[in-house]
Task: inverse folding
């Protein structure tokens, strides 16, 4: 079928809205009409070439939509046309992490999601044809949602009960927000009496902050370099905020927490923030990275120094989310008022992508959401 999609024709090229041909869904794929798609820094990392992915391609991996057609081999027999879905990452289903309920730790994660693997051996690996018949790669995180329609790999589709208006707000839950929330709720599971510091109030940091507040953690510290975000963090439940640019920020945090925090959750991907975070983490404490500067960068602390301080360093992808369980759980927390993603998001018509990108870069909005289907 024909649809409109934002195509990246080459590294550093702008997102260009093109009429493309979307090939029929294969047996284990689902055709959806896209309602909305959040913009994530990972999309921009594909555009800049920081994360390798083949061109030309369609990005977008925080998609919500309505099912149009279900492939004949889709295992979830409950799924039918008209169902509302939120999308998340794709995974192989066959490796040990996948088989034990940890698909975010899938051995094939990078190859499948950035390499745009569809789960079946199909003739056209790309899935989309451009205006001149050229192959355009879809299946980014199993979805490629910067489009009016998308063929989504079944692993990436999560059926939810939410109404059409909520589908716009909740579109980004399956990536940035679940990454931060999962760090707290699925991996660290801190005791109420502990101290948690969160570095960077983007979507990932907001997810971590909402989750820490939901658990009733006594000391929740938020670090950012934008004063307005520090004010916002207080509204969302941070008990202390610090400007990460302050020359003595490490001493300030250590003083406020009697020698350092129990858990430091680094969400910005900034290596200097991670280095400061390591110094702010108490001995016996845990430092977790759920933001990344991209492949090939080493942690900025010494093995000896870490050993004698008995600190734990954790790398965590997508918050260790198991999307079929965790995405509906977060949608439920939203409905209950515990996960107010709407307060850090803003919706834009799909024709205003440039404005959305501008507002994201300027820091005016934490999570821009592109709406492809108006009511
Ligand atoms: Zn993302
Ligand atoms: Zn796997």
Result:
């Amino acid at each position: 079928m024909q649809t409109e999609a934002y195509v990246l024709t080459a590294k550093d090229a702008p997102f260009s809205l093109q009429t493309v041909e979307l090939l029929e869904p294969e047996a284990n794929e689902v055709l959806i009409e896209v309602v909305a798609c959040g913009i994530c820094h990972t999309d921009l990392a594909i555009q800049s070439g920081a994360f390798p992915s083949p061109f030309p391609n369609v990005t977008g991996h925080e998609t919500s939509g309505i099912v149009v057609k279900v492939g004949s081999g889709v295992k979830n027999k409950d799924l039918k046309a008209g169902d509302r879905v939120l999308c998340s990452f794709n995974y192989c289903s066959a490796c040990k992490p996948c088989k034990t309920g940890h698909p975010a730790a899938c051995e094939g994660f990078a190859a499948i999601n950035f390499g745009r693997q569809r789960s079946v051996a199909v003739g056209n690996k790309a899935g989309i044809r451009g205006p001149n018949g050229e192959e355009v790669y879809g299946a980014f995180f199993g979805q490629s949602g910067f489009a009016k329609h998308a063929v989504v790999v079944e692993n990436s589709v999560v059926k939810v009960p939410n109404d059409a208006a909520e589908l716009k707000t909740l579109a980004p839950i399956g990536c940035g927000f679940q990454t931060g929330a999962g760090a707290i709720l699925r991996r660290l599971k801190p005791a109420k009496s502990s101290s948690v510091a969160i570095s960077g109030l983007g979507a990932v940091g907001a997810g971590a902050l909402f989750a820490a507040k939901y658990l009733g953690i006594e000391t929740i510290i938020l670090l950012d370099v934008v004063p307005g975000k520090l004010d916002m963090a207080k509204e969302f439940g941070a008990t202390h905020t610090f400007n990460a640019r302050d020359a003595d920020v490490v001493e300030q945090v250590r003083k406020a927490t009697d020698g350092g925090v129990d858990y430091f959750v680094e969400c910005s991907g900034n290596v200097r923030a991670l280095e400061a975070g390591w110094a702010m983490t108490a001995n016996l404490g845990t430092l977790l990275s759920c933001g990344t500067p991209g492949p090939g960068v080493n942690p900025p602390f010494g093995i000896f120094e870490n050993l004698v301080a008995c600190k734990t360093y954790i790398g965590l992808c997508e918050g260790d989310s198991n999307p079929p369980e965790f995405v509906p759980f977060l949608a439920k927390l939203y409905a209950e008022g515990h996960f107010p993603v709407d307060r850090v998001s803003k919706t834009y018509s799909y024709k205003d992508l440039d404005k959305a990108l501008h507002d994201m870069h300027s820091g005016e909005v934490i999570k821009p959401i592109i709406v492809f289907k108006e009511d």
In short: The pocket of zinc ion (ligand 2) is lined by residues 91-92, 94-95, 97-98, 106-108 (CB under 6 Å). Residues 2-174+340-371 form a domain with the Quinone Oxidoreductase; Chain A, domain 1 fold (CATH 3.90.180.10).
